[in-house]
DNA sequence: ACTGTTGGTCAACGGCTGTTGGCCAACGTC
DNA sequence: GACGTTGGCCAACAGCCGTTGACCAACAGT
């Protein structure tokens, strides 16, 4: 059952170019420093077009910040590999799609972005991780702990550029963080 | 050996009022959304005074972002309590001084703030934690890992307001994170 | 060929920003 | 009590921002 697509319009290319430029600027500079004028210049069109197609800067961001973490099914993997796989998956998602960077950079000072990031946690992270918790009452807490470690890693590695973290290899990051994540999601508290 | 203090001036009260208002605004709104006009209004004076005393917005931030983590001497505490004590100390520092919040919020989009946060890591965190590392070559890496977990916690608990993390008691946070920090600073990699 | 629709540019408005310089009043010293 | 110094306010400038509306060109359907 494929959705009925409206006939493609000539402006579709422009729209996606705007979206790509917007993601890049929001990711690199955050919400307020990324200007509509700069985004339009990157996309090679007039700033007025951005307003015509997306209405306002807020709505442009909302459109650019659509994101799917594509978390794997954790119930279908060897129990002791959960930490390793989850950390690896987050690293991959973070490096292949700048939308996450845009969300993090903007969420710190923009209310809508903050809510969007919270929604990703509530809708995509928490439900997927819930089955792993020994005690269902702890499920939310455990997912939250995962978020602290993964967002903290992204903050230090991709945003702040903390030298020891930036220079670590992917394998080292996974080796260090996997046991932490494993414990947060499915292990004992102490 | 007390430093020779210049005679106190009438304007000292105003200067510190500006600094307090600046910290509050930078902490609550980040660097670009915190305006000099708003800071001056909070301090009950004219925006021009901010420029007179601090020269520019950049230098005002630099003055407001002076910060000492006051990390305890980790070599003088029971080895197995290190994780607990460090996590507790970070929680306290974060809650009693809004400077840290100002630094984190600003560092995401402001270069000078990013460098300041890096400097705090390099000058205050890394050297203090170094003696705990079994292998001195790993010292920087281990301190960096500590930073990912503590900054990630602060981000989720104080900036993003992730519900499960916000609702956790201080004791729960310490209980969950202490083993992680203990392992990062002084434990085995796996 | 005509005409309505779509994709796009241009110039401008109003508002907010950091920053500046001139002016005034209160103070401290002789 | 005169006078330099200090603390403070006010008004304005120049620049950038999001946003708007008028205008033009290319296309599609008849």
What is the chain-wise order of helices and strands of chain A? HHHHHHHHHH
Low-confidence stretches of chain A: none
* Mean pLDDT across every amino acid position of chain A: 95
Q: What is the global morphology of chain A?
A: elongated
Helix amount of chain A, in percent?
55-70%
Task: Specify the biggest β-sheet of chain A.
Answer: none
Oligomer: homodimer
Question: What is the number of helices of chain A?
Answer: 10
Q: Which structural class fits the helix and strand makeup of chain A? A: mainly alpha
User: Whole-number radius of gyration of chain A?
Assistant: 19 Å
The percentage of residues in β strands of chain A lies in under 5%
Largest interface: A-B, 47 and 47 residues
How widely separated are the two ends of chain A? 49 Å
Count all strands of chain A and give the number: 0
Characterization of this structure:
The structure is a homodimer of 190-residue chains. Chain A is mainly α. Chain A has helices spanning 12-33, 36-43, 47-54, 57-64, 82-96, 99-107, 111-129, 139-159, 163-167, 170-186. At the A-B interface, helix 1, helix 6, helix 7, helix 8 and helix 9 of A face helix 1, helix 6, helix 7, helix 8 and helix 9 of B.
């Amino acid at each position: 059952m494929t959705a009925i697509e409206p006939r493609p319009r000539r402006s579709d290319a422009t729209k996606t170019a705007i979206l790509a430029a917007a993601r890049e600027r929001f990711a690199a500079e955050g919400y307020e420093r990324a200007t509509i004028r700069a985004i339009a210049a990157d996309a090679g069109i007039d700033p007025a077009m951005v307003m015509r197609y997306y209405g306002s800067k807020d709505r442009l961001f909302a459109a650019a910040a659509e994101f799917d973490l594509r978390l794997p099914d954790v119930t279908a993997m060897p129990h002791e590999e959960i930490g390793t796989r989850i950390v690896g998956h987050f690293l991959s998602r973070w490096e292949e799609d700048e939308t996450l960077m845009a969300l993090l950079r903007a969420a710190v000072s923009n209310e809508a972005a903050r809510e969007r990031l919270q929604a990703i946690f509530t809708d995509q992270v928490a439900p997927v991780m819930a089955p792993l918790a020994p005690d269902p009452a702890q499920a939310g807490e455990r997912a939250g702990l995962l978020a602290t470690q993964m967002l903290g890693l992204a903050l230090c590695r991709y945003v702040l550029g903390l030298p020891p973290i930036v220079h670590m290899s992917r394998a080292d990051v996974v080796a260090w963080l996997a046991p932490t994540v494993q414990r947060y999601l499915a292990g004992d508290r102490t």
